[in-house]
Structure formats: C-alpha cells, structure tokens
C-alpha cells in the first residue's frame, strides 16, 4: 500500500498535457482524519464553474494543485500520476537550478509537493489594529502569530481565533493585533504552527518559486 496512489483526471484541457491531472497517496485518501472529499455542492448550492462544477476533489492540508476540478476519472494505481502538474511542476528543485534545461535533470529526482507550509497574511490595518489570517498544512494548528509595524525590529503577539485544533485544523486561523506602525513601513506578520514550523524572513530560492512563505516581501535585485 505504501506505493499506491489515487490519481485524479479532469476534463479540463491544458497546454502542457492532454488534460489536468494529479494524485495523492492512497493512505491520505483513506485516512479517517484526512477528510478528503468529492464535492458537488458548497454552502448548500451546486458548485459554480469556477469552483469545479459538476464535481471536484478537495484535499485538505495539501496544496491546491491536488484538489482537481471538473473531475472525470479516479484511478488507484502504483506510483504517482504521470500528469505534467504532478511530475514536471510543483516540486522544490535544488538551489543551483536556474534554467529549464538544468531543471530537466531533476524533475524525476525531486518529490512532488503534498502538504503546504505554514503561512500568514495581513488583510487590513486601521487605527492601530491589524487583522489577518494564518494556516498550516497537514491539519496542523496555528500556535502563534507575531505582528510587526517596524520592519521586524519588534513583534507583538496577535490574538487568535481558531475554530479547530489539530490534527484537523483545515480552516483559516483569524488573528487580530494592536500594533504601532512606523511611518511608511508596512505591517508584517509571521506564524508558528503546532509542529514548531515558523515563517522565515527570507525565502529559500528555487527555480519554480514554490512554497515561498517568507514574511518579508522579496525585492527584485534591480530596484
């Protein structure tokens, strides 16, 4: 069972492949705490076309690329899906890879991304009060959100509103913080999940730019 996967194929056509496809381990699909769904309604109404009508996969705690829309087939098979977006995208390549030609030597050596990493966002700041949300992959809960109004020189703890604790914390953790904002400086935040993972200041370079959860926005080198 260790090498069995559930492959999903969509009716959606794409330039890179004959159709969109992806897969997850069978163990994830069968996990009673994994909550993998086939969804045909949302909030009591049929799915809209944008959300994958008539039926889609929902894989909580995994990157969105695994929640295939416009579902056509489901196959239990040995190994991952051979689809382009499973085998030739959504992978963290070594730092030295800088071109498509260099990447070609690593696609079959690097694992596909499943769970997403811990991340947080500032949504609104007004009159010294900042609000936002945080989330973590794999059903891990958010343990802490730090908020700064002086470019990370000092931090205050946010008040969390998390409806569910791990191992099934699939939803956003909303947060609120009172913060003193320096003139012309954006408010930033960083989150810590229940496994102790914390957002770093700077991203780790990778060719596809995936899984970048740094709390500081990167500045292009020519600016």
TrEMBL record:
It comes from the Eukaryota. One of its GO terms (cellular component) is mitochondrion. One of its GO terms (molecular function) is molybdenum ion binding. Gene3D superfamilies: 2.60.40.650, Oxidoreductase, molybdopterin-binding domain. GO terms for biological process: sulfur compound metabolic process. InterPro entries: Ig_E-set, MoCF_OxRdtse_dimer, Mopterin_OxRdtase_euk, OxRdtase_Mopterin-bd_dom, OxRdtase_Mopterin-bd_sf. Residues 3-84 form the Oxidoreductase molybdopterin-binding domain. Pfam families: Mo-co_dimer, Oxidored_molyb. Keywords: Metal-binding, Molybdenum, Oxidoreductase. Residues 129-215 form the Moybdenum cofactor oxidoreductase dimerisation domain. Its cofactor is Mo-molybdopterin. PANTHER family: SULFITE OXIDASE, MITOCHONDRIAL (PTHR19372:SF7), SULFITE REDUCTASE (PTHR19372). This is Oxidoreductase, molybdopterin-binding domain-containing protein. It comes from Syncephalastrum racemosum (Filamentous fungus). The lineage of its organism: Eukaryota, Fungi, Fungi incertae sedis, Mucoromycota, Mucoromycotina.
């Amino acid at each position: 069972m260790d090498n069995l996967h559930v492959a999903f194929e969509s009716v959606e056509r794409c330039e890179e492949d004959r159709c969109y496809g992806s897969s997850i381990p069978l163990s994830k699909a069968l996990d009673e705490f994994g909550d993998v769904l086939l969804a045909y309604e949302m909030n009591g109404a049929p799915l809209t076309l944008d959300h994958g009508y008539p039926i889609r996969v929902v894989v909580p705690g995994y990157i969105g690329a695994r929640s295939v829309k416009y579902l056509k087939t489901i196959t239990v098979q040995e190994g991952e899906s051979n689809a382009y977006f499973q085998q030739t995208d959504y992978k963290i390549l070594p730092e030295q890879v800088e071109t498509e030609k260099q990447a070609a030597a690593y696609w079959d050596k690097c694992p596909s991304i499943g769970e997403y990493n811990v991340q947080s966002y500032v949504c609104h700041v007004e009159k010294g009060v900042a609000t936002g949300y945080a989330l973590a992959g794999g059903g891990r809960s958010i343990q802490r959100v730090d908020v700064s109004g002086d470019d990370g020189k000092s931090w205050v703890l946010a008040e969390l509103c998390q409806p569910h604790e791990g191992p099934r914390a699939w939803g956003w953790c909303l947060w609120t913080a009172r913060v003193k904002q320096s003139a012309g400086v954006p408010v930033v935040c960083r989150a810590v999940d229940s496994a102790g993972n914390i957002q770093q200041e700077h991203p780790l370079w990778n060719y596809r730019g995936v899984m970048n959860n740094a709390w500081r926005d990167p500045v292009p080198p020519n600016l």
